[in-house]
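Example for tutorial group B:
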């Protein structure tokens, strides 16, 4: 049961955080921090998955907007895309040649202390069950 809690919490905690200068995509295992100046395109892939493309061609997809049934009827991905686009800087035509290089995408492991504690408890219970079965 603890493993189920870990799985559900990781999925449920997926989100996008709109900061002052960066867009943070929190997925179940990885977190991506993208400067607004590095974003070249934001959109949906048609199935509801929110996709952020950088000026370097890197693509970051959000698990939090992964094409759910709710999104099909409510359109949460489209609204999120519009809110992100409002924060993007205006760029003239041919901006790729005129602007300095954008900061790289920062990646890190997603931390969720309650979920990590449940994961540790899951491992401890599995080891204990294995030891008990050996005796």
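The residue assignment follows.
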């Amino acid at each position: 049961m603890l493993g189920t809690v870990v799985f559900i919490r990781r999925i449920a905690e997926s989100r996008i955080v709109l900061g002052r200068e960066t867009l943070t995509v929190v997925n179940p295992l990885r977190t991506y921090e993208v400067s607004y100046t590095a974003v070249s395109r934001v959109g949906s892939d048609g199935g509801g998955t929110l996709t952020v493309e950088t000026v370097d061609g890197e693509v970051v997809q959000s698990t939090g907007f992964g094409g759910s049934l709710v999104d099909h009827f409510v359109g949460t991905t489209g609204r999120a895309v519009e809110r992100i686009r409002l924060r993007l800087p205006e760029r003239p035509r041919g901006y790729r040649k005129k602007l300095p290089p954008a900061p790289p995408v920062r990646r890190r492991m997603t931390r969720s202390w309650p979920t990590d504690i449940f994961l540790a408890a899951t491992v401890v219970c599995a080891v204990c069950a294995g030891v008990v079965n050996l005796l």
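The chain has a mean pLDDT of 86. Compare this with the pattern of hydrophobic and polar residues in the output above.
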